[in-house]
C-alpha cells in the first residue's frame, strides 16, 4: 500500500479521498488554486501546495505543475477525483512516466472510452447494445446536418469527449440543428478542450441506469450493482438511488452482465461506471463508460457497505479485487441529492458568496453528508457550486425517502441562494415517490417543482414562526435582565406582561420582498397573535433545542425551528418558512438595473459570444450575448424592442456581476 498520495482535485471529492486515506494511515498531499487557499481540502490534508491561479486552466488542469508537486512532496501515487484531469489519458501517461501510480484505469482504457464515438463503435463490436446514430470523424456542418436528417428527429447532439452533462443538446427539427450544434461544440471545447460531437437517436421517456464496475490488474472484473439516475434537469443528475425501483430481476442481471462485458472489452482496471438508457419497454442501450469514480458513488457504498475509494487504492497498489461477483452484498435502499448554491426560481442560476450559515444533519447510520465546505467558507465563481451531497439509507425505499425528507428539513443555508426548496418538492412529488420519473420529466414539468405557493400564506407556519420569535425575544430579555442591577424587576424583564391586561406588541417581519405585520399579546408561551382579521390563540409554547411545541387554537403542533440573529426558520416536515425580524433586516437593493435599456451580467463570467453589433435593430427576447459562468452558458436577451446603441464588452472578456454589456436605444 502507498505511504503518500497526492489528490489532484478540490472540494468535496478531495475531502472524501482524504478521509479514507487517513483511515488507512496514508499521508495526503493537497493542491490548491489561489481561490482555494483557505479551502477545506487544503486544510484537511497533511500538506498542501499552491499550483496557480483561480481558473481551472491556471491550476487544476496544469498536469505538469501537479507532477512537480508530487515529486517534491514524495507522493507515490495520484488520485484524480472526478472532473479536471480524471479522464485525461495524457495525464495518466505522464503520471506513470514520472514513476508514479495513477489511481484509476490505464491510459489505454481511457483512450478507448475517451471518445463517445469510439466507445460506441467498440461496444457494438463487443455485443453491447448501442443507440443508432453517427460517430464519424467528418465534423463538417454539411455532413452533420445530412446525418441528422438521416437519423431523424428528435435526436441528441453529444460532445464526444468528457461528461457531466456538458455539451449535450436535444434537437427536434432540422431548422434548429445548426444553432444547437454550434453551442454544443463551443461548450465542449471550453469544458474538454475538444469540440468533436456525435449524433444519436433520442430515446423518448428513457430511464438512466448506471452500473458500478471494478476491475483489477489480475484480469478480474465485477459489478457492484446499479444506481438509477433518472431524475435529471438538463442532463444533470439531481437525485440518485440504489437499487432502481424500475428494474426487474431479469433486467438487472442482464444489465450487470452487459456492464462487465463492456469493462472486459477494454481491459478495465479500477473504478468505472457503465451508463445505459432504458426505454419504457425495458430495452437498454449503452451510453458511455465514465473512467473514474462517480459523484454518486456513496449510494453504492451505503447499500453494499464497501468503501470504493479504499478499493481504488488497493487495486492501484496491485492487489486483487476484495470480492467475487457472487459475494457482492446489497442492503436496503440509499438515495443521494446534491445541495447547490443556485436559485431554482431564477432558472437555477448558480450563486456564489460566503456561507454565512450552513446547518447540515448530523451524520448517523442513516444519514451521510459529503461536503467540501463549512460555515464561513466561500462558494467561488470559478468552480461547480455544489455545497454538499446528502445521502440517506434505510431498509426500503419508502423509509429512505422519509429519511431524506427529514434530513432536508434540517438543512439551513444562508448566504448564496440554495436548491433546498426544490429538493424538498422533488422528494415529495408523486413521480419520484412512485418511482416513475424519466430523464426528461423535470424539464417537461419544472413548474411542478419551482415557484410554488408562498409559504408565508400558510397561517400555521407564519404564527408558529412568530411564536418562536416571541419566545426567543423573551429569553434574550430575561438573560439581559439577569445581568442587570435589578434582575427581579418586571420592568427589566420587559417580556410583554402588563398589570391587569396582556400588553400588545407589534411585530414586523420581512419575507422575500414582502413585509408582514402582526400584533401579539401575552407572554411566556401564551399569546394571541393577529394578522389583520385572522386571530389565533397560542398556548403552552415551548422551545426545546431545535423544536417548538405549542397548541394553536387548541390543536397540538410540533415544528422544527432554527433561530439565528436576524432570522427565524420553521419547518413542519413539508414546508419551510424563513422570516427576518424587520428591525434586523437589511435590504440589499443595490445593483439592480437602471431601466430596460441596459442588459447586465447576472453574475461574474466570460463573454463567449456577441450576437449583435452597434446599430442593429433587435426585438424583445432576441439573444444579444452569451455569458459563460460556473460551467454553464447563459443567454442574455433583449428586454424590449430597440436599437443596439453600445456594446460594452468584447468576446473573451471577463466581466463582473451587474456589469452593463449592451445598451439599447429607442
UniProtKB/TrEMBL annotation:
<dbReference type="InterPro" id="IPR050856">
    <property type="entry name" value="Biotin_carboxylase_complex"/>
</dbReference>
<keyword id="KW-0092">Biotin</keyword>
<dbReference type="InterPro" id="IPR011054">
    <property type="entry name" value="Rudment_hybrid_motif"/>
</dbReference>
<dbReference type="InterPro" id="IPR011764">
    <property type="entry name" value="Biotin_carboxylation_dom"/>
</dbReference>
<dbReference type="InterPro" id="IPR016185">
    <property type="entry name" value="PreATP-grasp_dom_sf"/>
</dbReference>
<dbReference type="Pfam" id="PF00289">
    <property type="entry name" value="Biotin_carb_N"/>
</dbReference>
<keyword id="KW-0436">Ligase</keyword>
<dbReference type="InterPro" id="IPR005482">
    <property type="entry name" value="Biotin_COase_C"/>
</dbReference>
<dbReference type="InterPro" id="IPR005479">
    <property type="entry name" value="CPAse_ATP-bd"/>
</dbReference>
<protein>
    <submittedName>
        <fullName>Acetyl/propionyl/methylcrotonyl-CoA carboxylase subunit alpha</fullName>
    </submittedName>
</protein>
<dbReference type="Pfam" id="PF02786">
    <property type="entry name" value="CPSase_L_D2"/>
</dbReference>
<feature type="domain" description="Biotin carboxylation">
    <location>
        <begin position="1"/>
        <end position="447"/>
    </location>
</feature>
<dbReference type="Pfam" id="PF02785">
    <property type="entry name" value="Biotin_carb_C"/>
</dbReference>
<dbReference type="InterPro" id="IPR001882">
    <property type="entry name" value="Biotin_BS"/>
</dbReference>
<keyword id="KW-0547">Nucleotide-binding</keyword>
<dbReference type="InterPro" id="IPR005481">
    <property type="entry name" value="BC-like_N"/>
</dbReference>
<dbReference type="InterPro" id="IPR000089">
    <property type="entry name" value="Biotin_lipoyl"/>
</dbReference>
<keyword id="KW-0067">ATP-binding</keyword>
<dbReference type="InterPro" id="IPR011053">
    <property type="entry name" value="Single_hybrid_motif"/>
</dbReference>
<dbReference type="InterPro" id="IPR011761">
    <property type="entry name" value="ATP-grasp"/>
</dbReference>
<feature type="domain" description="Lipoyl-binding">
    <location>
        <begin position="587"/>
        <end position="665"/>
    </location>
</feature>
<dbReference type="Pfam" id="PF21139">
    <property type="entry name" value="BT_MCC_alpha"/>
</dbReference>
<feature type="domain" description="ATP-grasp">
    <location>
        <begin position="120"/>
        <end position="317"/>
    </location>
</feature>
<dbReference type="Pfam" id="PF00364">
    <property type="entry name" value="Biotin_lipoyl"/>
</dbReference>
<dbReference type="InterPro" id="IPR048429">
    <property type="entry name" value="MCC_alpha_BT"/>
</dbReference>
